[in-house]
Amino acid sequence: MKNINLLYKLLLFINILFLILLLVLIVILVIPDFLYQKPHDDKVLGIFNHLVIFCRGLLLFMGLFKIQQALKAIIKYGFYNKVSEVRFKKGGLFLILFGVIGFIFNIIIKSELELNVFITNFVQYFFVLLVGLGLFVFSDFIKSGTILKEENDLTI
């Protein structure tokens, strides 16, 4: 339980920093793009480039936040509980969405990237997708463990 508590605190710190980064991104890049209608001729998505980057970051933040909430539920209610199962599943869903949208975004902006950056981005999105799928599997383990725990509690 000590390691889960440490992981929860680390994720809390990362999420706070990530939220600050997202706020700075929206204030410095996204809002001025729409207020001043800055043309971005060098970007494939033009004026919407920073908005898409912000939305992808928001998906990643939501995934990490759901994982943080699931860890908090484990600390509060024990390892096998319905709350952590649902939150891990939602966190996995957000990470899967982030990975899939990352693949699509990477393909759209491939003309702006060097080959090594293009391939590195694909590898990173693939690993995020695997983590999201892993969270789905992990939530099923928690669900099975919760059912076994309930049955065990009923027999005692």
Fold and architecture overview:
- The chain is mostly helical and 156 residues long.
- The chain has one domain (2-155).
- Helices cover 85% and strands 0% of the residues.
- The chain has 4 helices and no strands.
- Helix 1 (2-36) runs antiparallel to helix 2 and helix 2 (49-77) runs antiparallel to helix 3 (82-108).
- The radius of gyration is 19 Å and the shape is elongated.
Structural class by SSE content: mainly alpha
Q: Proportion of β residues?
A: under 5%
Q: Give the N-to-C terminal Cα separation.
A: 25 Å
Shape: elongated
Count of helical segments?
A: 4
Cα-atom radius of gyration: 19 Å
Number of domains: 1
Query: Approximately how much helix is present in the residues?
Result: over 70%
**Strand tally, please?**
0
Order of helices and strands: HHHH
Largest sheet: none
Mean pLDDT: 90
Which blocks of ≥5 consecutive residues have pLDDT under 50? none
Topology:
Elements: H1 2-36, H2 49-77, H3 82-108, H4 115-155
Protein name: DUF2975 domain-containing protein
Transmembrane segments: 12-35, 47-67, 88-109, 115-138
Keywords: Membrane, Transmembrane, Transmembrane helix
Pick out its properties.
156 residues; 4 helices; 0% strand
In a few lines, what is going on in this structure?
Keywords: Membrane, Transmembrane, Transmembrane helix. This protein is mainly α and 156 residues long.
